[in-house]
Design goal:
The protein is an all-beta fold. Helices cover 0% and strands 40% of the residues. A hairpin with a 2-residue loop joins β1 and β2 (20-26).
Length: 62
């Protein structure tokens, strides 16, 4: 079985977790004026059934 899940940022790491996978993501724009209003790092859980549980984004440290 293959599945795709849309996520709001670039995936940095994928780790196996209970019943699925844990994702650590980061937005692509670094150090630009636009990025000041965006969020930085995110985490999410993708369950084996393809459901995405998105965590809260951490604000960028500017």
């Amino acid at each position: 079985m293959d599945a795709t899940v849309d996520v709001p940022a670039d995936i940095v790491t994928v780790s196996p977790g209970a019943g699925g996978f844990l994702l650590f993501m980061r937005t692509g724009a670094q150090g630009t004026i636009v990025a000041q209003n965006q969020c930085g790092s995110w985490c999410a859980r993708v369950r084996l059934d393809g459901a995405l549980e998105l965590g809260t984004a951490w604000p960028r440290p500017f």
